[in-house]
Structure formats: C-alpha cells, structure tokens
Amino acid sequence: MPLGCYVHDCCFLPNVLESRVIYLSQRPTRVFFFCHICRANSYGSHVSISMASMVGGRATLPCLLPRAGDSAVAGTRHVQWAIAFDTVFERRGGEMWQHEDYEGRLTLPEDRLRTGNCSLTIDDVQVRDAGRYDIYTVTARRGSTNTRSFVQTVELSVQDHADSHLCRLGEDAVLQLYTPRSAAVLFQPRNASGWSILWMRAKAISPKLEYNSILEVLTMRRMEASDEGAYKILDRQQHTVGTVQLYVDTRPLRVTRVSVATAGASVTNWSAPTHVTLLFLCSQTFQML
C-alpha cells in the first residue's frame, strides 16, 4: 500500500426504491499521498485532454512521456494517476497499486511504461469514474525527498445508455444490463409516473425474468401489453447505467390466405404475401402449359 493518510468517508443516500435510508459504502478517501514530497514541478504548459466513454465500456487515458536516455531510469519510471485528492493508480517499475474502487479494472503494463507510454486503461467504466485525472511523475532524490512533477490532465465524461426496442405480444424481450456492476432494474409502465423494482442482483423477484450472468442480460418471457414502458438500469450507487423504452406491438399478425385453381391443381392456405404467392403460381402454370 502506498504512503499516505486515510480517512473513512461514510456515504449515505436515500433509497429511491424504498422509504428508508440505506448504507452504500465506506470508502477510504486519500488526504495525502507522498507525505515526504516537498517539491512539485511541471513539464511546462498545462495540457488538458477531454474524452468520453459509455458505461461498461473501455477508456484509455492517453499520456506520453519523453523517452529516457538512461535505460536504468526508464526501467524504474514512477508515475501516479490521481482524481481530485484521491490517488487511483501508481506504478514504479514492477510495483503497482490501484484504488479499491478500481480494483481489477486498471491497466498500465510495465513494458509500456518503459517506452514512456503511461496511458491508463480503465475497463468496465462506471458512472463514478467520471472526472478530472491528473498524472504525475515521481523522481527519487537523495535522502527522503522526492519530486513530483505534473504532466497533464485528462477529463473523462461517462455517458449512460439510452435505447428503445419493439417486440410483439407473447414474444421474449432481452434487456441489456451493460455491466456486471448493474444492481437493479426499475420499471415505469406507460402513462404512469411511479417506478417499481423489476429485478435486483442475486434476488429473484419475478418468474418471468431470466438472468444470464455470462452475457449480462435479462430475458423477459412472454411479453404482455402491460410490460410496455421504461426500464431503468441502476448500479450499486444508484447511478443510471441505462434507460430502455420498450414497446409491445399488440396488433394481430396479418396472414394472407390465397386459394387459386390451376390446371389439374388447387393451392390453398398460403401464408406468404399475396404478390409473392401469385407470382409463384403464375410461374408454375406457365411451366405446365
């Protein structure tokens, strides 16, 4: 674990699903990183890059450093990515640390860092990942003094999904959850103002729902007219991951039945479109003649 002081930030939010208040998380918030850093430098003019990602996608925060002439120095590059006062990722040669909120989702290979490419890849991007990321290089000096130099800023914005689907009455509908960190699905019927819980992770609510943990989808069996409406996917922090407007076509299937008499043959109960059926029959009649 890197040097620094932590305080516990207890986060309470009102539960939109019920009338009580629920405890969401107790996340250590970094107050100081290198307590022994006494000097900060900058690479020159402030560089800021803006980029966007969808929830559940992959985002690579770009950054290139000047190539080090000394291979020994290049092999022990020390970089730090931080958002606000919170350090999210740090690598020094083969040593690596990442914040628990990003555990298993951050990548910056050592061999890439040796070449000066310190771009940080975030997998399974979450709504809470949005923000301003600052990158620093840390240079060891004699004694206990290190120098942290600011390199650049990357502004990451995260967008939730918005989609719509049309399915027929009695058919199955597939609802994308977009990320393994989706925690609940709310449903708002058409022409209604309230939301109800349709699904919660690890909790069966409706026998009509089938959850696929590999594809991260919900299959809703035998859609009815009352299933038409808006479906909102939430994460564990109750951020909106995506909203899907689902329409149910209740019109009966139109089946065309044709009865045509030909020389020595009678064809009935064809369900293909009329013009296609007549074209086929005319072709067969011409061949018989």
UniProtKB/TrEMBL annotation:
Question: What membrane topology is annotated for this entry?
Answer: Single-pass type I membrane protein
Listed under GO cellular component are: external side of plasma membrane
- Key words, A-Z: Cell membrane, Disulfide bond, Glycoprotein, Immunoglobulin domain, Membrane, Receptor, Signal, Transmembrane, Transmembrane helix
Keyword Oxidoreductase carried by entry? no
> Gene3D superfamilies, per this entry?
Immunoglobulins
Question: What biological processes does GO assign it?
Answer: cell surface receptor signaling pathway; cellular response to lipopolysaccharide; immune response; negative regulation of T cell proliferation; positive regulation of T cell proliferation; T cell costimulation
Source domain of life is Eukaryota
The listed locations are: Cell membrane
Chain ranges of the Immunoglobulin domain? 48-159, 162-249
Q: What is its main location?
A: membrane
- Protein's name according to its UniProt entry: Immunoglobulin domain-containing protein
User: What organism does the record attribute this protein to?
Assistant: Pundamilia nyererei
